Amino acid sequence: MNKSNQQQSLVIIKPDGVQRSLIGEIVKRYERVGLKLLAMKMVIPTIQQARQHYSSDPQWVVKKGQSIIEKFKAQGKTTSLTDQQLGQNILDTLIKYITSGPVVVMVWQGTNAIKLIRKITGGTEPLTSDVGTIRGDYTLDSYQNADMDNRSVRNLVHASGSPEEAQTEIALWFKPEEILKYRLIAEQILYDINLDGILE
Ligand code: ADP
Questions:
Q1: 130-161: per-residue pLDDT in tens?
Q2: Ligand 1 close to Cβ of residue 72 (< 6 A)
Q3: Fewest CB atoms within 10 Å of the CB: 12, 45, 174, 198?
């Protein structure tokens, strides 16, 4: 069995996903591609948990602020705020969003799980994320609407951006014994080299 490049990813169904009754639909998307669910729980995140979660990349605030300034420039707009202030504002709205109600936190595993899950999840903004992705198919928010109300873009799901980020995030949400180790029968067909286990 060639199970090379196995990765784990932390996925959160955000409060809007739970409120829209999309837990089953979202889980199905990751399940049907062949990923293995290692852990799952429903929680109401505390502000501290949310802060820790979004600080796993220390550069996030500045990078986010820079991307907003770039977006402004492209639209011919200016701002008196710094990248740090703009990024911090997004982070504050994001913490309000993620702590607003119950969420479902999961650990998924599979070959290239990080990239695969980001593909299935879709781009950050639902308005422009691809049809066929979770964010593209199940919701409609845009940066414009979010900016107007000074809130976070509601896009149903969080998914880890890199294997390193995933490990930090998994450790934040789960105890080691909550990550289950088991064999999934489907892995035989997904990863078996010779397909020699089928015929009787
Ligand atoms: P992703 O969740 O696609 O990895 P980011 O890590 O860049 O995206 O951002 C985290 C979350 O912050 C997004 O999922 C979205 O809810 C919110 N967000 C990101 N950028 C913006 C923005 N410019 N305006 C409002 N909300 C944003």
A1: 999 999 999 999 999 999 999 999 999 999 99
A2: no
A3: 198
